[in-house]
Amino acid sequence: MPCNYPYNLKRRLLFYTCTCRIARVASYSPVSMAGLQIGLKQREFLMNRIDTNQSVGALVREKPSRSRVFDSYGIDFCCGGKVSLAQACANRGVPLDQIVAAIDMDDSRVVAGTQINADKMSLSELCDHIERTHHAYLRQELPRLDQMTEKVARVHGDKEPKLREIRALFLEFQAELMPHMMKEEQVLFPVIRQLEVSSIRPAFHCGSVNNPINQMEHEHEHAGDALKRIRELTNDFLPPDWACNTYRAMLDGLKELEGNMHQHVHKENNVLFVKASELESTLPTSSPVTNL
Ligand SMILES: [Fe+2]
Ligand SMILES: [Fe+2]
Fold first, then answer.
1. Is the Cβ–Cβ distance between 247 and 156 less than 8 Å?
2. Model's pTM, two decimal places?
3. Please, what are the averages of pLDDT over each run of 10 residues along the chain (292 residues)?
4. How far is the CA of 52 from the centre of ligand 2 (A)?
5. Domain boundary assignment for the chain
6. Angle, CA 270 vertex, CA 269 and CA 275 arms, to 5°
7. Which phi and psi (to 5°) does residue 7 adopt?
8. What is the CA(226)–ligand 2 centre distance, in A?
9. Cα torsion 167, 136, 231, 225: sign
């Protein structure tokens, strides 16, 4: 006998998505989801489809579009991606069944082929992709945000002192990200590319690939903390009524920066680094042949 739950649920979810788009409410905000009545059998159906013991990083690795759901709920899927979905929901005080329904909704509306799936790329392709998209984005966007955070802090800092803190956080973030990218491009990514074409474990000057990976993950955490603090200080990037256009554009840019960084760090921490570490551990050791 055919089961009607997915069909009925999908109809409600489509209506819900449409309403939110008009109202400009965050698509999966907890408030919005509260209007989604999930029956016991529907909840059981969804829980069976999504393993709530899986880590949030693995869930996004499986379907990258799910990152939007986690962003909306303020759940960290990049640096904090090793935590299970159930634990992440408990930490944020988000009802598990709501977020499972939101993930299912996102899965059902994603059109195949419109999302980059880092998990399907070779390691070298993924390194190239990260450099061409995320690193290029940062090199283009950081100078623009630098100007805006400076101007907004200078002009409105007396009225709203937290703008000076945002400026300081941004400067620190920028100062760390530029050398971070250089280290990835000049040390870690070449090591990973070398691993992928090796039949025996190369002798790297850094020892194991895990050494630069650990350092990069540590720096990701620091950058993530700065972005979290900026989100807090800006009330989730919400401009005050009196905000000028530069202030509003700055918040819009910072919000986009956060979203882009989440994607960027997820692809590195949860896909590239995990696979590179696994690959190195499976290669047989031999005499040193490489001097990277
Ligand atoms: Fe990177
Ligand atoms: Fe990185």
1. yes
2. 0.68
3. 34 32 34 45 63 88 76 80 92 90 76 68 97 95 95 96 98 97 97 95 91 97 97 95 92 94 96 97 74 57
4. 27
5. 5-109, 120-282
6. 95
7. -65, -50
8. 15
9. negative
